[in-house]
Every structure is written in C-alpha cells, then in structure tokens.
Amino acid sequence: MSKDMKWQVEAREGARMLREPHRTQQDAIDSDRQRAKDHTPAQVVVHARDGHIRTAYTYGDAPAASPGERGRRPGERGGVF
C-alpha cells in the first residue's frame, strides 16, 4: 500500500480475501458499505486504531451482533451502540 493510501478495506467473499486501499477513512467506509449493499447479506465492521469495534452496519438478513460481540465492555469507550 502506498504511503498516501492510509486506510484499507478487507472483505471476504467466500474463500477469497479482498484488500482495497483508500486515501481516507470515509472513502474506505463508503466503498465497503456500497459493496455490502450490493452483496447482501453482509456486515461492515469499522475498527478504531486500538482494535475495538467503533461501529457496524448490517445489510440483508445477516445476523445482528449479540450483546457480547458489540465491541465494548462496561466502562470502555466506543463500540456499537
């Protein structure tokens, strides 16, 4: 990934792992959300730099995250609300 491409989308389609670099975080999120909408059921999970789940988007009949998978423990910042 070139130095001006700072954000990467990783997507799994079956056994294939796709990696797509982007210049901005918003470009990466927008691109992945559009891909998910076009290939339902799908889920987009946005991670913060420290690895916790910042937010998630679910499209189609993909199962919703259970409370234990929502990316936040009591007292932690971030996560899916």
Give short descriptive properties of this protein.
single chain; 81 residues; alpha+beta; two-stranded antiparallel sheet; 1 helix; 33% strand; globular; disordered C terminus
Brief digest:
17% of the residues lie in helices and 33% in strands. It contains 1 helix and 4 strands.
N-C termini distance: 32 Å
SSE ordering: EEHEE
- Shape descriptor reads globular
- Biggest β-sheet, characterized? 2 strands, antiparallel
Using only CA atoms, what is the Rg? 13 Å
Helical region count?
Answer: 1
Sheet/helix structural class: alpha+beta
- Average pLDDT rating: 76
Q: Pick out the low-confidence regions.
A: 76-81
Number of strands: 4
**Sequence of strands across the biggest β-sheet:** 1-2
Strand content: 25-35%
Residues in helices, as a percent range? 10-25%
Write the layout of secondary structure elements.
Elements: E1 7-13, E2 16-22, H1 25-38, E3 42-47, E4 53-59
Q: Can you describe what's shown?
A:
With 81 residues, this protein is α+β, with helices and mostly antiparallel strands. It is globular. It is built from one helix and four strands, in the order E-E-H-E-E.
